[in-house]
Design goal:
This protein is mostly helical and 473 residues long. It is built from 21 helices and five strands. Helix 14 packs across helix 15 and helix 16 (357-367) runs antiparallel to helix 17. The chain is globular, with a radius of gyration of 23 Å. Bound molecules: flavin-adenine dinucleotide.
Amino acid sequence: MTPLILWFRRDLRLDDNPMLAAAVETGRPLIPVFIADKSVLHLGAAARWRLGEAVAGFAKRLRSVGAPLILRRGDALAQLMALRAETGAGGIWWSRLYDPDAIARDAEIKSAFKADGLEVQSFASHTLVEPWQVATKAGGFFKVYTPFWKALDARGVASPLPAPKRLTIMQALPGSENLDQWHLGAAMNRGALILARYAQIGEEAALTRLERFLNGPIDLYREGRDFPAKEAVSGLSENLTYGEISARRIWHSALAFEASQPGHAGAVHFRKELAWRDFAHHLMFHSKHILTENWRPEWHGFAWRGDSDEAETWRRAMTGEPLVDAGLRELYVTGTMHNRVRMVVASYLTKHLLTHWKIGLDWFADCLTDWDPASNAMGWQWVAGCGPDAAPYFRIFNPATQADKFDKTKAYRHKFIAELNRKPGPEALAFFEAVPRAWGLRPDQPYPQPMIDLRDGRARALNAYQTRELQEN
Ligand code: FAD
């Protein structure tokens, strides 16, 4: 009955937390811990701030079942070793993550503790299924989404587990650091207060969000999910990122909804979208280079442009292309961006501006509160054309026609662009509150002219892509 260290990372919830459920079953005294190691301290500004809020929310949630959350900062192995020495713990458990850095770190920690005779266990919790549990008939991994989806749906997803009612904790708990002293929101400056208006933090908020979605927007989901001004999507990516809700809980709630309304197109489609997140993790696990280089090697010679004034204008949401700027301002103000608009802004950067997708990927990593390494890399490489199952190179989103189609009433563009609105609303004005003063932006300045003619940009991109193809053949 030695104590167990439960190392929480991206599983900041009580509900459907297999590690926690198994730990409670043992009856052993528990030591719940969160460590701010380099995987936390190296996050982008918005994600680091949001993770701090998630940790605070989870600490409160743990207190409601009688347990404190011990906070430590520094190298994870060193901190866990210290905790073990302080507590005489006989085991250390965690929930598995699948990005290469986490895998390497966890492997090192596992072998160090095992060599020391300690019990080490890890659990599945972050995705619907583990990345290796779905495989092609030949035993390989899927590179195309549709067969992945079919295999996943046919395999099924394990049922979620209930939240424990009470935890038994170790009597003389070790000391904890103070979350406020970590200053996880420091890089956000004034922006943290603005993001806080839009974030829905913690497990209870995530479960409420799911319930609200199932009570209305899901009916619009299939047809409406591409229209950024419609309330037709769940917004759950923010909570999934920190494990404030489990993907399995979402999946099974959607299945239960389908059972109550057989053939409901929105519910099936919603599970299909959720499966994209698993597909991204599947790809990252089996081909980790998706995070750092063109997934398709034939793109290595492509003449992507590096960082430039044009890329900076894009980051500042001043391209003069209203749908692109609205999306980038939504990102800056709310920490998130509608999926349709993510595709349009990414296409504009990588195709019209021929700029390397990594520049956009890094900007999203800095600004998104739902930043996820796998989904972000898959999204950027998909749009740029160099990823698995990618959009073909000749698919160049035209931001003007996309706006006409998906934001016909201009509601979305007007919501985020003050200069286009005689009476700008809070989101449009918040952009100017949030941006660095050095950018010198003001809402009463005229909206910029388009920085590039869309036809010229398209022609230039097609030409570059065709040249690449010719060189390859
Ligand atoms: P809903 O439509 O309600 O979907 C439910 C859930 O399904 C989402 O929460 C998400 O977990 C999953 N999902 C839906 N679409 C996708 C998709 N295309 N790829 C992967 N998962 C999906 N998503 C992130 O979570 N983090 C990122 O860093 C991220 N970066 C992206 C970058 C680019 C360039 C693009 C094109 C897409 C990116 N996405 C990312 C995917 C997608 O845009 C978001 O998951 C979605 O907008 C989240 O909103 P929602 O929760 O309302 O989604």
